[in-house]
């Protein structure tokens, strides 16, 4: 399984990050331990939303969409 996820900073709630991974639990641990350059400044993080995909490439396509202008608007409207 592949997961597309959105996390939100607990210390700075206006900060969100969208990503994709095959191991969601480990990836969240990595974000919270500062192993990701993009998210280390805003730890700790909480999982806001995720979606599971059977196909890696479909997950990566959906992640790319969520990071686009219309994808960010979708996230803002629904989350």
Write the layout of secondary structure elements.
Elements: E1 2-9, E2 16-21, H1 24-32, E3 45-53, H2 56-66, H3 69-78
Q: What is the count of structural domains?
A: 1
Principal-axes geometry comes out as globular
Secondary structure: number of strands: 3
Annotation field: number of helices: 3
Low-confidence segments: none
The value of Rg in angstroms is 12 Å
Description:
There is one protein chain. With 79 residues, the chain is an alpha+beta fold. It has one domain (2-69). It is built from 3 helices and 3 strands. The protein has helices at residues 24-32, 56-66, 69-78; strands spanning 2-9, 16-21, 45-53. The protein has a 3-stranded antiparallel beta sheet. A hairpin with a 6-residue loop joins strand 1 (2-9) and strand 2. The longest helix is centred in the last third of the chain and has 11 residues, at 56-66. The two termini are 23 Å apart. The mean pLDDT is 96.
Features:
alpha+beta; 3-stranded antiparallel β-sheet; globular
Q: Would you kindly provide a brief summary of this structure?
A:
With 79 residues, the protein is an alpha+beta fold. The protein has three helices and three strands; from the N terminus they run E-E-H-E-H-H. The mean pLDDT is 96.
């Amino acid at each position: 399984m592949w997961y597309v996820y959105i996390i939100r900073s607990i210390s700075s709630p206006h900060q969100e990050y969208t990503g994709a991974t095959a191991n969601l639990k480990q990836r969240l641990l990595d974000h919270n331990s500062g192993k990701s350059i993009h998210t280390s400044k805003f730890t700790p993080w909480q999982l806001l939303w995720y979606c599971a995909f059977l196909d890696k490439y479909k997950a990566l396509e959906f992640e790319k969409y969520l990071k686009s202008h219309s994808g960010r608007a979708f996230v803002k409207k629904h989350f």
